[in-house]
Structures are given as C-alpha cells and as structure tokens.
Backbone:
C-alpha cells in the first residue's frame, strides 16, 4: 500500500446508514475487498474500480455482505 495512493471518500454504511470517511487504496488497481463499519461493525463489501488509463478512481460501490456487486 502506498500512502500517496490513498484517497479519502465520504460514504454511508449500507446497514446503519451512518456517514463516515473511508480511505481507499487505488494502488492495487480495480479490486474487491471488505471493510467493517466503524459504527455497527457490519461487513461492508467494496468494489473499487480504477481507470487503467489514468490510474484514478472511477467508481466506489458499497454493498451488504449478501449482495452481489
């Protein structure tokens, strides 16, 4: 993980709807991962899409653990 490739994004938990800031690592390119909500501790599924041309974040999709992203 490269600190210069961490982007902060304001998101809402798909379970409790609480807003929080999330650091997204775009140095890995497009990928899926999991992060626990800092409020309700529910597992949030993340789909991170990074442009292969620019290396910038194209999309950040959050979902419940039982959703298919």
Residues:
């Amino acid at each position: 993980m490269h600190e210069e490739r961490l982007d902060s994004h304001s998101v809402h938990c798909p379970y409790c709807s609480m807003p929080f800031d999330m650091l997204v690592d775009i140095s890995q390119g497009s990928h899926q991962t999991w992060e626990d909500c800092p409020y309700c501790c529910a597992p949030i599924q993340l789909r991170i899409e990074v442009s292969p041309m620019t290396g910038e974040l194209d999309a950040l999709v959050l979902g419940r653990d039982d959703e298919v992203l």
